[in-house]
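Notebook, bench 3.
Goal today: get a predicted structure for Cardiolipin synthase N-terminal domain-containing protein from Sesamum alatum so we can plan the truncation constructs. The sequence was checked against the plasmid map this morning, with no discrepancies at the termini. Length recorded as 338 residues. Pasting the sequence as submitted so the record is complete.
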Amino acid sequence: MIASCSIISCNFSPLPPKVNSSFPRSSFSPPKSLVFSSAESNPSPRFSKILPFLINRKKGHLQTCRSSFNTQTPQDPPLVSEENELLANGGNGGGDGGGEERDWTTSFLLFAFWAGLMYYVFFLAPDQTPVTDVYFLKKLLNLKGDDGFEMNPVLVAEWYIMGLWPLLYSMLLLPTARSSKSKIPVWPFVTMSFFGGAYALIPYFVLWKPPAPPVEESELRRWPLNFLESKLTAAITMAAGVAITVYAFSAGGDLWKEFYQYFKGSKFIHIMTIDFGLLSTFAPFWVYNDMTARKWDGKGSWLLPLSLIPFLGPALYLLLRPSLSAAPIALAPTSDEP
């Protein structure tokens, strides 16, 4: 516990009265049984196991009694450094134990939010035009021929941008949002997001346990990472997002008012618009997570405020971020490497 010092146990009875000795004062030395030299300063394994318990459980009952014979040299470490370290770690003998525990408060609140959201979607969302919803869905899927009805351009733009959101989230979550402390993969949730949007992604957000596992160099050259990490994919996604946004805002104010009326009465449009808002809300967090995993949170921090812009902000980050092979992150060696 204490290195390079003379220790006299405090459990002995009081010392006898001082008597005159014929020996010079400088030649006197304490009994060897009460003095531990620097070579014997390390406690035995058996004592080291109970030492943290004594420090943690009975503070104030463990005393350090120093001998009046100062045998510590200037080269010796501080006498109480190891004791302070044990006290700081709560008697665990190390600082890694606390990191294994997880605060489930955020996950619980996120799950409660998702459960309430799903209840709203199925039971409380407006559903005044079910027949119109089916008609709109067929028109958007090109299952309905040209009957002279012109679809609202804001609705069309939202429909197509919702088809790009899952691709954008795939590029953000794979591989930097995988869970190293959980066996739950991210790809099933990403796949379901092409049909369910944020409603399918939030359960993974609840179960997510960072940090992400190391990425093998060979994995970056295989599907799907070679596609998701491609700058060409990011550029096409960005260009498509810009085109759809321009198309939506080119619509007049009357068409936006018409879209708002659809939102208040159509369950299909109402749920899809909420989905768009949720994906836009969660995106800045995953941009920051991916940026941190690539060790780019210093140079790329200026992109964080821009990620608040729905779709276009995260798409710009994906276009400018460094590739995993170039980023200074821990890459696992491939199987053919020693």
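The longest strand covers residues 215-216. Confidence is low (pLDDT under 50) at residues 1-72, 76-101, 333-338.
Flagging this for group meeting.
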